[in-house]
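PT: before anyone asks, these are the final sequences, not the draft ones from last week. 768 residues across everything. Please model them as a single complex and drop the result in this thread when it's through.
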Amino acid sequence: MFVIKYRKIFFGISLVAAALSLGAIGFLGLNLGIDFTGGSIVELNYGADRPEIAELRQALEESDFSEATIQPAGEESIIFRLGALDEGQKEAFIDIVSIGNQEVREDRFSAIGPTLSSELSFRGVIAVILVVLLIVFFIAFVFRGVSRPVSSWVYGGIAIVALLHDVIIPAGIFAVLGHLYGIEIDTLFLTAVLTILGLSVNDTIVVFDRIRENLQKKVSKDFSETVGISLQQTFARSINTSLTVIIVLLALYFLGGTTTREFALVLLIGAFVGTYSSIFLASPLLVAWEKWQKKSNQ
Amino acid sequence: MTFHKVLAVLLLIFGVAGGYFIYISETDANSPWYRPFSLGLDLSGGTHLVYEADVSEVGLGEIDEAMSALKDVIERRVNVFGVSEPLVQVEQVGFGDGASHKLIVELPGVTDVEEALSIISETPVLEFKLEREDGPSQEEINTQVNSVVASASTSSSTVDLTSVLANISDSLYKPSGLSGKYLEKAQVVFAQAGSPGAPQGPSILVNFNNEGAKLLAEITEQNLGKSLAIFLDGELISAPVIQSQISNGEAQITGQFTIDEAKELTRNLNLGALPVPIELDTTQTIGPTLGQAVLEKGLYAGVIGFILLSLFMILWYRLPGVVAVLALIVYTIIILLIFKLVPVTITAAGIAGFILSIGIAVDANILIFERMKEELKDKNKSLTEAITEGFKRAWLPIRDSNLSGIISAVILFWFGTSLIKGFALVLLIGIIVSMFSAITITRTFLLALPVGRGERSKLIELLFGSGFPK
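LR: through. Structure below.
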């Protein structure tokens, strides 16, 4: 199987992508939204004659709200992001940005306080760690029957490597998107990341399961060949499953509401990267581990 | 074979009936089955408030009780104002001393935050305060007020009169420990006409619970001849002088009330004072138009996604693909029925989760079909044998891979704010139902097909082949 034969190339691709992503996160930073930092979002619908961004910016420059960011949404709306507002401040703010003849409609107002935002960050980190840990234990348990030539804990460990890969790359891409287009990391991003964890490991398990079956059937004396055969057998399934998920996510991205667009984008990236990692990273890593183990035993 | 045919027909009937029920229960308000989907705040419009409770004054062991009392009080207040299907819940994050306690209030349909906030904070704070012995004299107060008035007339800055008054009343009165917390019942009473010395107009009779009555008895006994001031929302209502010990736990508040004022006050007092102080942390309001747009677009995306997915399955897997699409339709109907009947509150993230779950749901079918194809390579096997074997072998990876999805969904649900909980729940239900639908529904339909036994013809090879012809 070419995947096993050229595994070093695929490892290289993953390594470079992950390193670039980590670099992007390190240098550009993640553009955290108000869900994590606290602050306010006001979404206003201006109807047909939406004022120009420059007009709004000018109106805000002279006020107490000069730090507000302005982002158009759809054809008629504008989303403003700014520091924490209370009810009175919000009314004052809306007065300032009510430019034009038409009545401005307030579609959305969120003011996230420090309690909720700090708690969300805390819970998010805990949730990711918990999912990762549970999945290692789960895989080690499910594959407890296979201990030769590679221990079931290695299957779990490698699944984690694949998981980290699948989370780091979308995060890196969003760091770049945040830098270029001001896209923010919000609660839904975190939700999407946790969902990717579940989806990606799902793919990896199906391939591992086939390896287990082929080891029991003794399809080949050589471990790397066994893995290669297993990959070949599950190849169509892996690709098709990802395709179906990607089809519905594309529909959600292009046709769904604005609130879930970025969510769909994270999942799309995750589905793509997740499929790559279960075919080109997880199983070849098993082979690499087995070869390394053999060498160190000699 | 006959068994599977009967079962397949029953499944189809169930699907049609279920679909019809979903349609009728959503659109026909006159039907006895009318039961529309329950939409989350982000789709229906409404206000979501998060309060932080200050439990520093409450003993560690009593926090749970205080928080549940807080929830009851807020629920009563919200209910009085006639908001439909409000949701009030308390939440604890962390443990022990470091824990933060929150009160979450969801008010569907209320998009005016000011109105929402007033609903929550409507109840007046009732306090009883004792006269300070070392308090300032009337003259000192006069000087203080005069200086404030003087500064207000000369300087351009505004003077916060409320805080000035609060300062003065603080210097005059000290807390007695007795407050609305101990209140059992408040009622409006009227002075008997013509009785001498009785206050004019209505007054409010307050009954305390045992603890409050004991406190009142102690205070009145120890402070005979002093005045016990009654404050409502920090405002002095009256300051009667204690004439004798009050041991029956009854206090009368007299003031310049109109009948309506007195009635409203008693009602608010009866609705209860807050057992712990709360502070607004987070406000989220979604207008009904935005929610409606998100809902419509989400549904549209779901339908288009479903059609594209069906085309892919049918073009690639041919006859089994058609079967998978049928199973997927039944799956969708089951999910929608669960959403309706449980009911599961649908949010924007929930719709996204549902659309994603449709994509995931076909995964099990794909696993089975790929396995079947492998079995069919053995030319000696009949079609039925290949189908049965394919299902048997695909079960293990289906189970294991879905369990990992379930782990993520459960953690998400635990971790979630209400937004994420909606998504996690939908995903969880989706994964579990899809396991069932792939194994049982697809299998039943496949085995019910009038092909399979005996010779494998060219036609069957074509119908059950997949991908591009080689």
